[in-house]
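Reopening: Cleavage and polyadenylation specificity factor subunit 2 still failing for me.
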Amino acid sequence: MTSLIRFEALSGVMDDSPPCYVLEVGEFHFMLDCGWDSSFNMDFIERAQKWAPRIDAVLLSYPDIAHIGALPYLVGKCGLSCPIYATVPVYRMGQMFLYDWYQSFQNYEDFQIFSLDDVDQVFDKVLQVKYNQQVSMKGRGHGLQIVPLPAGHMIGGTIWRITKMGEEEIVYAVDFNHKKERHLNGCPLESIARPNLLITDAYMCGTALLRRKFRDEALLSTILKTLRSGGNVLIVVDTAGRVLELVQLLDQLWHNAEAGLLLYSLIFMNSVAFNVVEFAKSQVEWMSERMLRMFEEGRSNPFQFRHAQLCHSLAELTRLRSPKVVLASQPDLDSGFSRELFLDWCIDAKNCIILTSRARIGSLCSKLIEMVSSPERIGTKQITVQVKRRVRLEGHELDEFRVKKREQEQQATKLRLEQHRRRSRVDVVSLDDEDSDDEEKKSDAAANEFPYDISYTAQGPDYWYNRAESYRRFPKYPHFEKRIKFDDYGEVIHAKSYLQLETKVRMVDLMRDRMGEDQENGVATPGEVQDIPTKCIQFVQTVEVFAQLEFIDFEGRTDVDSLKKILQMSKPKQIILVHGMAEQTEKLANYCRKSLNMAEDKVFTPRLGDLVDATIESHMYQLKLTDALLNSLKFIHVKDVEIAWVNGLIKHNCSEEETEDQKIAAMDVDEEKNAENAVDIGSDNIPYLDLLPSSEIPSHDAVFVGDPKLSDLKQALMLDGFQAEFSHGVLVVNNVLSIRKRADGQLHVEGIVCKDYYAIRDQFHANYFFYICIVVLHSCLMVETEPRHVIVVGSGLAGLSAALAAFNQGSRVTVLEGEPNIGGNSAKATSGINGCNTSTQRVNGVQDNAKLFYSDTMKAGHGINDMQLVDLLTKSSADAIDRLTEIGVDLSDLVIDPEQPDAGTKFLAAEALRGSGALLLDHSGQRFANELGPRDYLTGRIESQCKQSKDVGRKTAYMLLNDEAVDLFGRPSFEFYWKKKNFFTKADNVEQLAKLLNVEAELVNATLKEYAEAADGARDDPFGKTVFPVIFDPGRPIYVARITPVIHYTMGGLKIDIHSQVLREDGSKISGLYAAGEVSGGVHGANRLGGNSLLECAVFGAIAGKYAATVPVGAQAGDL
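Support: Ran it again with your exact input. Result attached.
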């Protein structure tokens, strides 16, 4: 990248502290998350406060306290005033998190660290964004773009991609989850493919996770066991994040009559539970496809709970019947209803406490998790906790409070009367529009103090007579006229007046709503509690824990094994590891260095205070330009930028004159405060580039910039009056000059020395910027030499593409083919051809890009593909397809004629049938794989799970289809395989099918029933299948065929470079020998992505022919 990239961790490195980092891109400073915890570490705040004046934007990943907790303090107390970017759910649920967090402390102590006004001030600065929305930075961030991408884990969770001027990118991805859950989709892995810099976390390293099925079973069995024994269950959750997954799961379990849970109460409890659920209802579009399907097809909101009840106070909770299951916040058990319920319920052995997430070391939650993981789990446990209570004042304390309050009221009354008396003596009241803001505020304050006071102090007659000429005052009600602005069309319309009111909830409104509900129910309202004088007490208590303790991980983060695979696939050029314990971080760093072959200096594991320089170019340095030098530069437009040649003298300190000028121009500042808040990033050491005297400026050769295209050059020359046309890939100008592009990108110009040559050269220098041109001048006309002879072996798509490319370069071409017909294996390919940003996509409004295509190809190849070849394949796909279309290849509407289904080439049946809903069974009548898995996966499953058929001599499996799947595939084509090829046999029902498979009908029936339940969402598919095209009815006809793996495409072969030139084992090139198609290897890796075979032939075949045509005539071929 062309910008300096620096990174500093303020928190969240080498320990379990919340994440907060500063990323510097050029002169722009991002703050990446701003978490805090209930320890309220002020050392972190001091570090963040020094950065606050410099921060230009804050990027929030998730709405929980661990990612936004410190913002109220930094905004309200430290002056953080920059824009804050967050998705809509993070904006809404973030308010709920902070409101509930504040109230959890305020209920039991006089909480002074931040106020609700600070919370509201934070969200006044938040700019809401949507996924994949490109947001451009302003000011110092000109050219920078941020893009929020789905991250899973919590609703609205975000992976941030930061780019500058379309260059390589920075990806900030922490705490993400790639797995699909009930209410959230996983993060798309292509969003973190091949970034220039990846910032990710090591939080889950060293943690083993249960499969979702076993985890849910453990939760359900624990709940059932406790409730049936007469105990209560406390599930410790957060406010509005992971709790949505849990409450959705439990509400569904309660709805299942077979679970036997309808007799028990299910309760979701925190200070803002009602608003959390209401916000969840309005944000279904941010959730999983399953939630959307329930909402759209079922006409019911998935968060319209049928069994879960909402509670906002302990008084409400006591009115609900026991036994009960309560999901209560806060997750660290250091505050909130969860702590209160734990202290009340832990002394009963019938009760159960379920912890769903880890917390900071030292918290009550972490201590309980240590108890769970200790070998001596059975028996009584003791734990010492600090108990805080808010109690009413009684006796002499209450009397003292009332006396003190009365004195304060009397003092306030005296002060108010004194202020009123002084205002009455004011001689002049200014009504000019130019009054200062401070005077207006004082006037407003006075009006608010006595809004209905229309009297004025009596003055003598001389007072009013003498002032009559200058100002006349009459007693009247205060009135302030609002001036309406007009333009040529009438009153100015303000768009804000017509915008829909923003959905924003403030704590005052929440408490007012709650007050109305509680008053109806006879519960003391918060207003009443505030009117009753109270005091806060705290004491240390040793608690004996008799209740059952369980830790069931519902954090929803990517496990360490998956993270390693993601890193293998994404292949970042540099990586910064954060948010993990020291040992875990070092393990992951060592894995990156060894398994990903990353250099030592490309894997960063920073500690607090470390400044990481992640600028990839080693020749980049930061300089300041003096005004004199900047004014002397002559900029030239090149596409969207301006460039200039710079000559200057490097100075490490500015001159005395410049320093003096700076002192004169400087404003008065508070030097002590600035020194206190300043951040030392070595700004004093940045050298200056000063102007050189004209006599000392050295000369330099011309520099050519850009990548010329002959087609663009032809058009430009014709506009300037030249005659230009292509002949065998060479641009001929005025029949005296020929211009062709060499393999290394340079332009080769041949011709005679004449006026046209100089005129064309002047046009080049005046209007275009190219790489260095090699110019060969002759004193006579060009003499046509013997053309090169290119021999192409094979007439498949790769061979024909090579032959055409070589011919267009002016070479003589001979194609050798051993078969009687041309076409090779390409004539049998019917899977289509892949491509991105093709003309067809553009016409149909399909948005695609090479990065997604690259990610899909690398994922299919298990990451062992040749990255350079794949990058070239994906970026050249559109040109290759457009080139085929230009020469007459029809790539549209490739369907089989229904009148002649046996005519022409058929589909690759096994592939297409699986996509249409086929079911795969082994010889025992049971499923053994995800039918929609890739080819290599299914081949491995057949080889490991199925038996060998004696008549075939290979391991086989059974493929089942019903009429619905046949129609999806195409009945005419299917009947070709069924009736003419006899691949399929028809069974009228399951009993006949069982006889054909030689298994019991009950086993096949059970298999089809489990498959239908997985398709309906009643259970998880054991093989991870999420798309079910059809469901099998045991009483309807079923078609069955045997399948076995075969090789239909070769993915390995000769090693080639990006010019399709064949390489030896040592990497050296074999001159004159090029390869493409099935004969070459490296593009597909371990498995080929369907549709890439034809594309590989078209792309690398054309490249091979193009470069083969550049081999000099008479050159010796290398040893083969």
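The chain has six domains: 5-207+554-610, 212-393+541-551, 630-696, 710-778, 789-895+1049-1108, 909-1043. If you still see a failure, please send the error message rather than a screenshot.
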